[in-house]
Amino acid sequence: MNDGWLGYLIIGLVIAWIAAPGSWTNALWYAAEYRVGTSQVHVSTRPTDCDWGRAPLGDKGCYYNATVAAYNAVGDVVGGDNAPRYGRDTKTGKPIVSYDHGKTWAWFDGPTVPDLTVKTVDVEWVKLTD
Predict the structure, then answer these.
(1) 10-residue mean pLDDT series, the chain (130 residues)
(2) DSSP string for the chain
């Protein structure tokens, strides 16, 4: 039996992924990343005003970047681009928090560390310039 069909299948899946609507592929991607169902991922429509093929044709000097916020059951941001990171101090075991992606840490002064289980994910688009 020829195993060449597996290569064709992989190429076909890659082409389907590229050609598929972005909202569907983004939902699938973030659902897998945050281990939630695709129905729990809310992706806003990506604006097209920076697209090369949009009038006037050519480079517009801008692009859109996805920003992600993942929420737990009570609505606390527990994942995504600007989410705080939680941990425990190695000497005391007390909870600590970082608001700069783990560069600096401070004592967590809340009553309890939030549940870090992601329940919903929101994806929005931010316009950036070259």
Answers:
(1) 74 69 77 94 91 88 94 95 92 93 92 93 94
(2) --THHHHHHHHHHHHHHHHS-HHHHHHHHHHHHHT--GGGEEEPPPP-TT-TTSSSPS--SEEEEEEEEEE-TTS-EEEETT--EEEE-TTT--EEEESSTTSS-EE--SSSPPP----EEEEEEEEEE-
Q: Which structure tokens are listed for 55?
A: 């009038």
**What pTM did the predictor assign?**
0.75
Ramachandran sector of residue 6 (left: φ over 0; alpha: ψ -120 to 50; beta: rest):
alpha
